[in-house]
Please model this.
Amino acid sequence: MSATNLSAAPPAVGAEHRLAITDLAFGGEGVGRIGEFVVFVPFVVPGEEVLVQITDVKRRFARARLLQVCRPSPDRVTPRCRYFGECGGCQYQHLAYERQVAVKQRQVTELLARVGGLNTVTVEPMRPCPQPYGYRNRVMLRTQWDKTCGRLHLGFLRQDSRLVVDVEECAIADPGLAQPLREARAHPPPRGGLKVLLRVLPEGWEVPWDSFFQNNAVLLPELVRVVRECLGAGPARHLVDVYCGVGFFGIELADLVDSFVGIEVDPRAIQAARANAAARGLTNGEFQAGRVEEALPALLRRSPPAATAVILDPPRTGCPPATLELLRAEGPAQLLYVSCHPATLARDLNVLSQGQVYKPLRVVPLDMFPQTQHVECVADLRRPDSPPPAAVAGAGEPRPALPTARA
Ligand SMILES: C[S@@+](CC[C@H](N)C(=O)[O-])C[C@H]1O[C@@H](n2cnc3c(N)ncnc32)[C@H](O)[C@@H]1O
Model:
C-alpha cells in the first residue's frame, strides 16, 4: 500500500492506496488524488480518509473501490436500504440529507459555470424534499436469468455492471409499491430480459400506463410553485408547453395566460392531456401529438414573441440543436427550461445565452430525486429586450383576463 506519491504517474490496477477525499463529482463519485493523479471512488464523503483498491486506470484518472473508511466524516450516516452500494439506483444514502442537498447545489453551480459558461448566474438554494425516502411513484424493474444460481433475478442494474440485483424492496419507492413488488416477484415474467413497470398513478390525473408523469409527488407542488412564480413574473399572455406529456405544466399554468398549446410525441399522453384539461373545465388551451422538431415552428408563429413564453421539459438528453436555434431566431420573450439533467441543461443554456440572445434570470434546483445523483432544475430565461419582470410578490396569482383571441 502506498500513502504518498507526489508524481502524476498512474497507479496500478489492484494496488491499494489511502486517499483523502476532497470532493463529490456530479454522478456521486468521491474525488481523491495519488500525487496529482485523480482517483474516483463511490460511497465516500468529502473530508474522509479511505482505503481503496484501484479497479480501472485511464490516461487522466483512475477508478477505485472502497475497502475501508479510515477516518469517517460526521456527515456519514447508515444507509436505510440493504442493497445500497450494490444496486445502481442510489448513490448518496450514506450521506446526511442536508449534505446531499448542499453537494447537489454546488454541483449544479459548477456545471453551469464549467459547461454552460454561466459564471455570473446565482443558483438559488436547492429546494429539499420533505420526504427523502419513499417518494418515488414509479420504478422500472429488470429481469435477468442467473445461470450460477439457476433462477430469475428481478430488480435493478448493479452500480458496477449490467447485472441485475435481485431486490425484495426499494427504500426510495412509494410504500404503495411494496405490494405490487411482492406480486411481481410472486408472478415474474416468463424469462429474463423483460422489464416490469410498477407505478402509483397520481390522483386527479389521467396517465396512460407507459406515459411520463413527474415521479416525486411530494416535491411536485414546489416545482409547480416555482414555475408559476417565474411565469407570473414575466410578460407572457401565451404559453407553448413543449414536451408536454399528459399536459401537466400547461394545465397547472393555464390560469396565468390567455392561451396555451402543448406538444408531445406520445399520442396516448395527448389524449390524456385533453381529458385532463376537460376535467378541469379549461377552454383556453389545446394539445397536439407530434414531434417538437416538426411542430414547434408553426406553434411559435401563433402568438407575438413579446407576449409568448415557452416551457421546455425535454428528456434527459436535452433539446436538439435545431430547436435551440429556432428559439433563438423566433425569440419568444421568456423560456422556462425544466430539466432533470443539469449537464444537458448547462449545455443548452450556453447555446441559448450566446450573444446575449437570452439571459438566465433565475436557476432553481429542486431535489426531486433524493439519495440519487439526479437533480431537477428550473431556469427562467428572458430576452434582454423583453419587458421588465413584475415584482415577485403576488406573482403566480391568476391574471385578470385580457380581451385576446382564445386558442
Ligand atoms: C421529461 S418528460 C416531460 C413531460 C411533462 N412536461 C410533464 O411534466 O409531465 C419529456 C416528454 O417529452 C416527450 N418527448 C420526447 N421526445 C420528444 C419529441 N421529439 N417531440 C415531442 N415530445 C417528445 C416524452 O414522450 C415525454 O413525455
